[in-house]
């Protein structure tokens, strides 16, 4: 029998947990980092190959070489490239597509480091590089937590 009120808090359902670490009464373990994800599309006039290669090589180099990358303690940087083939395969699973071509993920120790990185002069060089492969006309969508 459910307990609680999910409109104002959490409503438990009757569930036998397979793993104790997921039990309702086990504290949630959050990693001590801020994870920020940025979703974007390729420029319409560039090929997928150009987008992916430039993003993987040139943009990565600019990002990791930026003085602010180390100075503001970027803990991790990853890229996800969503190819046309991957988009098509995802649709066959009956899912709604998050229709972006790339996602950059950065981990910071705290919000101050994240803000310092994104307001640094080196970040301006990264933003200028976007003109070679990234469509920013509809903005870059973000998620953080």
Automatic annotation (TrEMBL):
SUPFAM superfamilies (alphabetical): Dimeric alpha+beta barrel
Domain of life: Eukaryota
Transmembrane segments: none
Recorded GO MF terms: oxidoreductase activity
InterPro entries: Dimeric_a/b-barrel, EthD_dom
Pfam families in the record: EthD (PF07110)
Stretches assigned to the EthD domain: 44-136
Family label: Belongs to the tpcK family.
The protein, known as: EthD domain-containing protein
Organism (species): Hapsidospora chrysogenum (strain ATCC 11550 / CBS 779.69 / DSM 880 / IAM 14645 / JCM 23072 / IMI 49137) (Acremonium chrysogenum)
